[in-house]
Give the backbone structure.
Amino acid sequence: MFQRRGCVRDWIGCCRSGRGSVLILLCCCSAALAARPRGPGHTHLNSIRIDGDISLGGLFPVHARGSDGKACGELKKEKGIHRLEAMLFALDRINNDPELLPNITLGARVLDTCSRDTHALEQSLTFVQALIQRDGSDVKCLSGGPPIVSKPERVVGVIGASASSVSIMVANILRLFKIPQVSYASTAPELSDNSRYDFFSRVVPPDTYQAQAMLDIVKAMRWTYVSTVASEGNYGESGVDAFIQRSREEGGVCIAQSVKIPREPKPGEFDKIILRLRENPNARVVILFANEDDIRVRRILTNPSHLSCRRLLQAAKKANQTGHFLWVGSDSWGSKIAPVLHQEDMAEGAVTILPKRMSVRGFDRYFISRTLDNNRRNIWFAEFWENNFHCKLSRHALKRGSGVKKCTNHERIGKDSSYEQEGKVQFVIDAVYAMAHALHNMQKELCPGQVGLCPRMDPVNGTTLLRFIRNTSFAGIAGNPVLFNENGDAPGRYEIYQYQIRNNSSEYRIIGHWADQLHLNIRAMQWPGGVRQVPASICSQPCRPGERKKTVKGTPCCWHCERCDGYQYQADTYTCKMCRFDLRPNENHTGCRPIPIVKLEWSSPWALMPVSIAVLGILATLLVVLTFIRYNDTPIVKASGRELSYVLLTGIFLCYATTFLMIAVPDVAVCSLRRIFLGLGMSISYSALLTKTNRIYRIFEQGKVSVSPPRFISPASQLVITFSLISVQLLGVCVWFGVDPSQALVDYEDQRTADPALARGILKCDISDLSLICLLGYSMLLMVTCTVYAIKTRGVPETFNEAKPIGFTMYTTCIVWLAFIPIFFGTSQSAEKMYIQTTTLTISVSLSASVSLGLLYMPKVYVVLFHPEQNVPKRTRSLKAVVTAATMSNKFNPKASLRPNGEAKTELCDSLETHALTTKQTYISYSNHAI
């Protein structure tokens, strides 16, 4: 036996001369102390050692994590023993294969990681002991002789580990000593970092592929709002991180809650997790990157009187959430029975993913044939035997009343106990074969023509072996291709399962597969309660057509729906835009459509009335004109002042005709005619009337002071004055044409109502309200002036009654236009503006013409047609008589003499004949007729 104190000094010296950082070497020392031999030929109870020409290391979670300070816990039959036996099975096949590594025997050193990364780190230091130079010069045995130190086997490569956290911890040690590592189950994405884990390879795809496959499943189901649950550690956290990262890059999926399961969960921890998941009830889908032990219920000894820590599924059941959560599980769940045992109703509908694999029948035959007698090399097999058959090998271990029987060694796996091959067995075998094929190719290259090992492979160079591992490619035990990319990762190939319950029988059914893209049979899927329709997992219901999404800050999958109202339409999912000025939104506000264009139709009630008035007015005007032409030389026609009468009748006719221009379909020609004739008819009428009233006024005023006639009272002069007044209107219109050419346009503003459905575009001429005021303003000025003269001549005697009809005409016309102004401009905001204003304007113009026609000419026509006896000449008066009439008017109307400018109102006849007599006295005679 070694002297303890000397041995400590020996191992400290060894650590000082070792490789790597101080921290790592301290670990070496502690591990060496823990693993030092206690005597010659001692059997390692914490590892399996199989001799061979080349030794491979193995790391397997034979036991679960321990509690209460214990390193290891209960035995893991499937993930531990099945996988370990798969490595031993592969070694047997390789050593018995004459074609693979001929004359070379592979040995092994298999360690138990106890599902804990720190424990695995301590155990894995066994693999590097042979690479550490030991200095035993200062160590003496009690007999005085030098110490006898057994040289450990040299491990050229390691198979494992299972958990990603364990592989990461071990990879940091193995890379320092250039020992290649091939994992059969570690899928953490960070292990793909070739700059940090350059000696790490794996025959399973990284979780980046798995996360992509799970994201594709979520999108195929149209789930947009999900939660994630991850076990603390590299596997769970890296998997969820990869899923979240991919979902952010591709968009369309939001994370409601991201929950982490602690390494050592306290009682009630899973109840809190379920409570957090319930905070977002719309997020029914839960992405699960959790260890198997965190999914199912596992009993952990916490104190002598209290057992059981509730896990995820049971916590959900306790919260009465059966059928609510839709689980999407990673390969740690896969198609295992253990996670769903006694929790079938909670797991119903769960979608799980597993690297594509096949059951290895040869391993099944091998494993069910294992007994205590033929499997002594597995030091944990006896414990497995007791656990599997619920018996005890030693009578001393039996307890009274426990109900546990003694093992008979006649039990058989698969006959006296259930058996199902663990899912990663295929990958364990492929990992061992990958190492064997790499060694085989290395031997062929370094030892050409030789059988067995040669000096160039003693020892095996780790860097060279890594190169051969990365370049190896072969058909795996299940026929699948085994190869590695530049980062040491295997290609991603997954099978997709769903846990279904049918006829009170539950099973995992394959519903699809994934290899770079998803192939999913949605019709084969079944959800909780036997429902076939895919359940929803969305934050917000889809917006209806015509509604935009207003996202909640920080959660793009949650939104409020806002209606695109008014003249807005839904331009895209998140935007409402205004329709173009000539468009309005369609019924559901998903696009724009042209605004209907309207105009005043001939059949409209708004047009029938003014057209009827205009037609009657034109007929009446034609009747007057024809009567005047027929009786042109009769006294009444002559006394009416034929020249101005025809001019006035022309203006009246144009006033009526304007109605048809106002209702006609607007175009350039119609709009041009509107500009010309809308004001021209009234200008002609009021110019003629103004000339008449002005002539009467001047003659009557002249008669007060002189017997000589006033200037410009002849018919020719009257026509010149009238056309001069009319020319002002025409000149203004010409200037308007020059400044702003006429055009037809569609006005979309007048009837742009609050309700787009009522919006209309109005086809009209480019005559604004201001332009209309200017256009009619001159006519109004003539009308007002004419009214003033009519007022001034209102007091003439009965026998001079021409002024009275003109006065009545102008008074009535003023009333018509005073009524027109509030109606026209007061309806500017009305939806019927176009109809009301057009009708009001045309009727007002027609009424003005009708007043003139009715008061000035219809009495004459009546006399001419029905009382021809009155159509005779009256006596001729001299100017002296006119002066006398004016004087008598002042006498009978004393107030008249007080009026400004000595106004005296009298009426004179319209026909004036001037005679130059041969004598020195001049007489002016007037033929007076009733008008």
Summary: The chain has 24 helices and 32 strands.
